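Course exercise 7: structure representation. Students receive a sequence record and must write out the corresponding structure in token form. The form below is the worked example handed out in class, using TRAP dicarboxylate transporter, DctP subunit (333 residues). Read each field label carefully; the graders check that inputs and outputs are placed in the correct fields and that the protein name is recorded exactly as given.

STUDENT ID: A-19
EXERCISE PROTEIN: TRAP dicarboxylate transporter, DctP subunit
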Amino acid sequence: MLHWKKCILLLAALLVLPVTANAAETAYPKLNLKMSTTVGEQSNAAVMAKEFAKVVGEASKGNIRIRVYPSDQLSGGNMSKGVEMIRSGAIDCAYEPVDVMAVLDQSLLALSIPWIFTNYQEAENSLLGSGGDYAKKTLRAQGIEALGFIHNGFRQLTNSKREIRTPEDLKAMKLRVPGGDVFVKFFRAFDADPVAMSFSELFTALQQGTVDGQENGFDLIVANKFYEVQKYITAWNYSYGSFALVFNKKTWDKLDDNTKKLLQEKAKEVCRLGNQNVVDSELAKRKLVTDFGCKVTDLTPEELQAFKSKLGEYYENVKKTYGAEACAAFGIK
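STUDENT ANSWER:
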């Protein structure tokens, strides 16, 4: 009789287990979020924005829906306006270039100071450490919560005029830059003519000859087909760029802890994937532009030094402009 009682109790316990497990599942609120990114839908950041929307949707059982708008669609192609819309809450979240968000605090441009990182691992370590902490703190003070960072890539130089091997080759060349002294004064040091312009306008400007060239990583050169209208590419890794996965802070602060935890976990996963994509695909993208007919020029250490030797005053100025705290955070001495 005792044996049968034990069996009945065990069976009852087993029947209760699924109910208990289901009750423990996290229920996420129903949310519809708008997510923006500056770049076109084939670019790594836009692909990662869609991946973030996908994995968050799956993990929340469809309760959290994120719609992605590439190419600054929500701000009419205006990068600075897009950042302001994130800060105001008109856009809930975004993958946004750190150098573009520097319209809120110029010290973020310290990340873009030329030749402070020699490889992607150094840059990633900085953004997982003191550099990322500084960027997050700075953006939080401006009403934006950053969850993570992915490589935009090391910036290369493309143009339609000539091969670039010496500082003199840049003289009078009209080059699109994203804005900010870190880029504008860099090219002026070589007597080039830098022009600040929104990314959404760039392909047309290159195609029509409004500008002679531009500077972006291989991911954006390929994804946006700049190589179709730019014969010459100088591979010099002169400046590192990063996208930040960000939320409007008011939107973020309204979320419950479980939802925040989910978004942080998925942001970490997607940022790790996005970084690996850039590193893994760079050689293939370089081969693609070479096969298309572009001339890719690798500068020797001596040729690079010829550029760096003209930047003494430039480095002193940008370090003063962006401040000791920002420079120290990104490892700039």
